[in-house]
Design goal:
Layout: H1 6-14, E1 20-21, H2 22-42, H3 50-60, E2 65-72, E3 75-82, H4 89-97, H5 102-105, H6 115-121, H7 125-133, H8 140-145, H9 150-159, H10 172-183, H11 188-196, E4 198-200, E5 205-207, H12 210-221, H13 227-231, H14 250-253, H15 273-280, H16 283-292, H17 306-323, H18 333-350, H19 352-356, E6 361-362, H20 367-372, E7 382-383
Parallel strand pairs: 1-2, 6-7
Antiparallel strand pairs: 2-3, 4-5
Protein name: BspA family leucine-rich repeat surface protein
Pfam families: DUF285
InterPro entries: DUF285 (IPR005046)
């Protein structure tokens, strides 16, 4: 098709084929940009009308998907991807820079479609930043939707590797979105409470995904907020019901916090960052914050340091899981799981100083993932000789550097279920692993986009 006018350009974009590789869809937009540039040259100094520029803008940023072909290790599948995902930033900038009335070209008055929402949903924080810079409002509703978009901002970095005209630098989209959020005046608490977590009223806590937690880890790693801001931005959750240690007699009564167990919601209870992450079960962020030492010198509103607070929780849950210390007199599996995590977290903390000194530390089934998913910790520093299960160890991990993993001792490991599932950046060779007791590898490498070849010992 010859692209000589706006109508032909829009038709060319609209008629894109399905089941094509990512480079094809990026190429569609690149050809459209070249055609627009040629039209502008042919006009010899005259502008392309705002009406025509808006037509192109609208079709490029509309709420539509293309079924693109994704190839992983010589296998391919179709994935529904928002059309604005493939859009070169240069094309958006061309449309805006050549407008007489930018607000018209951006559809701010004549369109009901939320173009900013569309680009956020596609993971294109760089385009979102340009739209906001040129007048489109970033609202609370846009912030609320972010909790669903973090994974796309990360995955796009892998899927577009080697695509000419759309190279994404490491954490490039996270950098853009954090700059945008901070420039818009959103507080850390606002971003965390609505853009990263979702409050679950049934369980009286906030929930989050590995991807959204990584977004906050990125902010910690790059010191986007001071420690003072971190420790003064979070209010503690109201106490959870259902646990009544008093029914256990003196042993339980000694652990019962009478000031908070049945107290009304205290909206002004400010808690230090690590305590807030613990209460919300934002555990990936908590572990990274502990690694950074953000617990040192901090105390909660009862005067407990984090180590004492954690031991108190362990003591409480030991009773819960041995005597059924809740209002139902029943031992619940979720309490057993919580106790196991608290004990693992205690072991994790006890080894932090050693790992920072460069020593090799012994890890177990529970602490392996805690250490392995912190990128600053070399994988060669982890002694895995006693690990028997690596289930979900790197599932949804955002780690980039896997050097040293090829030397891990996995001779005792039987369970590899989902070990690297959705580990977008995993690309290490495991050919040298001595998998002597392997029993289950289901979903071990599913959606490990960067891995070029599976080890010969692997059986799906």
């Amino acid at each position: 098709m010859e692209l000589t006018d706006i109508k032909s350009i829009c038709a060319f974009i609209d008629d894109a084929e399905s089941d094509r590789e990512i480079a094809y869809y990026v190429g569609i937009y690149q050809k459209a940009l070249e055609a627009l540039q040629n039209i502008l040259i042919a006009k010899k100094g005259r502008k392309i009308s705002d009406k025509d520029l808006y037509k192109v803008f609208k079709i490029c940023l509309r709420d539509k998907r293309w079924y693109a072909r994704i190839e992983i290790r010589e296998e391919s599948y179709n994935q529904s991807i928002e059309v604005s995902t493939f859009l070169p930033l240069e094309l958006v900038e061309f449309l805006i820079d050549n407008a007489k009335d930018k607000s018209f070209v951006l559809g701010m008055h004549q369109s009901r479609e939320d173009f900013l929402k569309n680009v956020l949903d596609s993971g294109r924080a760089d385009i979102a930043a340009v739209l906001v810079k040129n007048g489109i409002a970033f609202t609370q509703e846009h912030l609320n939707r972010l909790r669903y978009d973090w994974d796309k901002m990360l995955k796009i970095e892998v899927e577009f590797q080697g695509i000419e005209g759309l190279e994404i630098e490491k954490d490039g989209m996270l950098k853009k979105i954090w700059e945008l959020l901070i420039s818009q005046g959103f507080s850390l608490n606002e971003i965390y409470s609505t853009g990263i977590t979702l409050y679950n009223g049934m369980y009286n806590r906030k929930s989050s995904t590995a991807d959204s937690q990584y977004a906050l880890i990125y902010a910690l790693r790059n010191k986007l907020f001071s420690e003072e801001v971190l420790d003064n931005s979070f209010q503690g959750l109201p106490p959870q019901g259902g646990i009544n240690l008093a029914v256990l007699g003196k042993e339980g009564a000694d652990l019962l916090d009478n000031d908070t167990a049945y107290a009304p919601l205290r909206t002004q209870r400010i808690v230090p960052f690590v305590f807030a992450m613990f209460e919300d079960k934002t555990y990936d962020v908590l572990e990274y914050a502990l690694f950074l030492g953000l617990h040192k010198g901090r105390k909660n509103d009862k005067g407990e340091d984090f180590e004492s607070f954690l031991q108190q929780k362990i003591d409480e849950y030991i009773i819960l899981t041995t005597k059924g210390g809740n209002s139902y007199g029943t031992i619940f599996q979720e309490d057993k799981d919580a106790l196991a995590y608290f004990k693992a977290l205690q072991r994790f903390m006890s080894s932090l100083d050693s790992i920072k000194r460069g020593e090799v530390i012994e890890v177990d089934n529970e602490t392996l993932a805690m250490f392995a998913n912190i990128e600053e910790i070399p994988l060669s520093s982890l002694d895995t000789s006693k690990v028997t299960s690596m289930e979900s160890c790197f599932a949804r991990s955002i780690r980039r550097d896997f050097s040293g993993i090829e030397k891990w001792n996995v001779s005792q490991v039987k369970n590899f279920i989902s070990c690297f599932e959705n580990a977008y950046f995993f690309n290490a060779s495991l050919e040298s692993w001595q998998v002597l007791k392997i029993a289950n590898t289901a979903c071990m490498f599913d959606n490990a986009f960067s891995l070029k070849a599976l080890p010969s010992w692997y059986k799906d």
